[in-house]
Amino acid sequence: MSLLLKGSGALRTSQMRFDIITIFPEMFRGIFEFGIIRRAVEAGLVEIGISDLRDYAEGRHRQVDDRPFGGGAGMVMKPEPLFRAAEALAAEDVARSIVLLSPQGRLFDQSAARDYASRAHVILICGRYEGVDERVVEGLATDEVSIGDYVLSGGEIPAMVFVDAVTRLLPGALGCDQSAAEESFSDGLLDFPQYTRPPEFRGMRVPDVLIGGNHAEIGRWRKRKAIEKTLKRRPDLIRPDLIDAVSGFEREQGEIELPADEREYED
Ligand code: SAM
Asked: 54 near 65, Cβ under 8 Å?
């Protein structure tokens, strides 16, 4: 079984294509059919193919896994079906990345998502069981990517995360491209706090500055809150080249609240 999510039109015209290789193609039914990803598919920005690894396996049982050499618990994904599947999907393209989802890979963050958003074709391999035969790492995958320092049961959820994070960075995918530029991580900072109506809820008031309508002040307030939040929660995100900018901003603002153990960023 294979699924292809694409906009109208018979030819491949989209800016980017993802191909996902999995033993559980059914897991992807519906997941990309909502919100921003659905609109990006319909607009022809992206197409998403889902391929069943068993279609590339041989024998009556279409076996995709086997016992590990050297013994040990669990099963390992065999190399032949994975090579066959990825090579078939990559056949027409010179420029493509073959990404093995793996807890041992490069950490997938916003900057990695931005890198991949400039590629034309990304093939994602979802591992299962105890993982995949190491020859897939050595001779097939161009990249190994982890979505975080924890172990999941399979690469399907990481593949969903990957496609979602990359697709929303494609020009035209968000209603307003400025939104991607202002989100958490885009400039080494977490996003500023957002509020909507009502202006007061259970005694909690929306900050006056946001209601005042002075856009320059709102901009300064948002920047300050983004810096405060990042210093409090994720000081590791502040890149060395941003430290000067942040310190300058703190000096200028005076009143910025810093937790005691993060004052190293102050002059
Ligand atoms: N034995 C492997 C290890 O310790 O590195 C873990 C195998 S895991 C149970 C099965 C599959 O889930 C992996 O091959 C990979 O495709 C996927 N997976 C699990 N955690 C992941 C993560 N944090 N990021 C990306 N993929 C992950």
From this structure: no
Burial class (CB in 10 A: 0-12, 13-18, 19+), 129: middle
Q: Give residues with Cβ within 8 angstroms of 57, minimum separation 6.
A: 63, 64, 78, 80, 81
Domain ranges of the chain: 2-182, 200-266
One of 3.30.2130.10, 3.40.1280.10, 3.40.50.300, 3.30.420.40 is the CATH number of 2-182, namely 3.40.1280.10
pTM score, two decimals? Answer: 0.90
Q: Is the pLDDT of residue 78 over 50?
A: yes
Distance 172 CA to ligand 1 centre (A): 32
pLDDT band at residue 47 under the 50/70/90 scheme: very high
Architecture of domain 200-266: Orthogonal Bundle (1.10)
Instruction: Determine the distance separating the centroid of ligand 1 and the alpha carbon of 125, expressed in angstroms.
Output: 11
Ligand 1 binding pocket includes 130 (Cβ within 6 Å): yes
Decide if pLDDT at 267 tops 50. no
